[in-house]
Amino acid sequence: MMKPAAVVLLSGGMDSCVTTAIAGQRHSLALLHLNYGQRTEARELQAFNAIADYVRAERRLVISMDHLSKIGGSSLTDHSMPVTEANLGREGIPTSYVPFRNANMLSVAVSWAEVIQASAIFVGAVEEDSSGYPDCRRDFFDAFGKVVRIGTKPSTNIEIVTPVIEMSKAEIVLSGTSLGAPFHLTWSCYQREDVACGMCDSCALRLRGFELAGIQDPLPYAHRPQYTH
């Protein structure tokens, strides 16, 4: 029996990698990657292709969204803005927030999903990040799901699925490990492409997740602080 198709937004990071593993249990995978002029664009694309090869994805699509880098407003796309050093207790929106990025990405995903008649779009958003990123919250995805229902053909039925949104990073590590997710192929660092910096928010969240899970992070780091103390 053929599995229904699902579009999976795969950045190449640990959350989207585990989301891919979850989606692959019941769906035929159509993996989508968006380049938007981020600092580690080439390294993230490498991770995407490596993961897609590993899971033998039935389809893959890479789209350029360089308008986000032209708009700017984020330290990920504007090199004149320094990437904020990790502070896991910080409140407010960090400089790495790319304005309305997830809405842009979801719009592309919906277009592709409608064409290939996919029944779902899987997104590896995590509420743990939502204090900084407003477009990582469950209510954002619930609202966007309503937009999809209103703005697509009457015959189209696409569900937005966020399977790791309520998990901590440690729970994501444990879930991915149980599913055989290839963490060694992922990339999470915001600012380096050779070895992970270990000092940005994304590296810190990842390192703390692995530490709390009691599992060694397979990536190389220029610095590997302890974030659980």
Please give a quick description of this structure.
This protein is α/β, with parallel strands linked by helices. It has 7 helices and 5 strands; from the N terminus they run βαβαβααβαβαα. Helix 2 (41-55) links the parallel strand 2 (28-35) and strand 3 (59-64).
Outline the biggest β-sheet: 5 strands, parallel
Helix content class? 25-40%
Number of strands: 5
Quick check: average pLDDT? 95
- Spatial sequence of strands, sheet with the most strands: 3-2-1-4-5
| Rg calculated over all Cα atoms | 17 Å
Supply the helix-strand structural class: alpha/beta
Low-confidence runs:
none
Can you tell me the CATH architecture? 3-Layer(aba) Sandwich
Kindly estimate the percentage of residues that lie in beta strands according to DSSP.
5-15%
State the domain count.
1
**Pattern of helices and strands:** EHEHEHHEHEHH
